Amino acid sequence: MDCCIVTALGSFASLYALLHFVCFIFADADFTLLWSSLFGHRPESKLKGLVVWITGASSGIGEELAYQLAKCGSRLILSARREDELNRVKRGCLERSNLQDADVLVLPLDLLERTSHEEKTNAAIQFFGHIDVLINNGGRSQRSLCLETSFDVYQALMELNFLGTVSITKQVLPHMTQRGSGSIVSVSSLVGIAGAPLSTGYSASKHALQGFFNSLRTELTEFPNILISTVLPGPVQSQIVQNAFAEELTRPVAAAGNQEYKMTTSRCVRLMLVGIANNVKEMWIAKQPFLLFYYTWQYAPTFAWFLTNLLGRKRVQHFKAGLDADSAYFTKPKTS
């Protein structure tokens, strides 16, 4: 009898492990986030009527966030440097939803002009009365080798991606602690937990964000209704490469390359909203094989270093050969 029970338990465990393995092969997010997407709260019900401030809202993930949140019925504060593009996104929000003109505030913002952040925050609060969710999405990436990159690029990346985000967060957080509720969601990256060649400065800025918000979360344990969440997307179809820093501040990236293999922006944003609606503290969002990198770095770091060095060498070779670095893992390098 005992033998039968052990055999049955062993079979069940094997089937359970096999099921998880099959699910992981087709997964595009961590298991907590996927579980929430299947059985958790729906963004349409949890985010309706909330006031959401999005930085970097003029393109890419920020623009898609605006559209999907508008469909959820959230009231929006759209911020970026380009006011004309923000107005375009606002029109798109109104066309795609039942929101009225007064439900969407265009609030131009430069993350580098930190002295203006208090004034901008006060304007947002005065317009809607409060802020329920701050989504820190503004920032720029990098595509250049360390030995060829100006120090000014590193300074700009830290000023924009890290210090600009911290500045806005410090303006909004006291408002949330006073109310006793709110969500601060910050878009980090896969390279926020794992290094990648051609992104030394960008990776450093995202590692800094991870450290800051992980520490901040522990400081706010007496405020259980304040969510501090970080989002770590892998490659996503957006304009992040076109807007990336190269070796010099004024030098543009040569070409964005093919984005077909990347996750669609709409899918990435949908998963983000699911995570916000279900209070997920950290979200890993990526198609395979990139999702495997997260788990490898988390549970098998020695093997992760081996893979990173192997694939990183290939990435650098492709970059030097003039190929798009992001798609280098799926193409063969040029031969002379």
UniProtKB/TrEMBL annotation:
Q: Which Pfam families match?
A: adh_short (PF00106)
Q: Which residues cross the membrane?
A: 15-38
Superkingdom, natural source: Eukaryota
| Keyword Membrane carried by entry | yes
Q: Which UniProt keywords apply?
A: Membrane, Oxidoreductase, Transmembrane, Transmembrane helix
Q: Which InterPro entries match?
A: NAD(P)-bd_dom_sf, Sc_DH/Rdtase_CS, SDR_fam, SDR_family_member_7
For this chain, one GO molecular function annotation is: oxidoreductase activity
PANTHER family, sorted: DEHYDROGENASE/REDUCTASE SDR FAMILY MEMBER 7-RELATED, DEHYDROGENASE_REDUCTASE SDR FAMILY MEMBER 7
Give the family from UniProt. Answer: Belongs to the short-chain dehydrogenases/reductases (SDR) family.
Q: What is this protein called?
A: Dehydrogenase/reductase (SDR family) member 7
Which species is listed as the source? Champsocephalus esox (pike icefish)
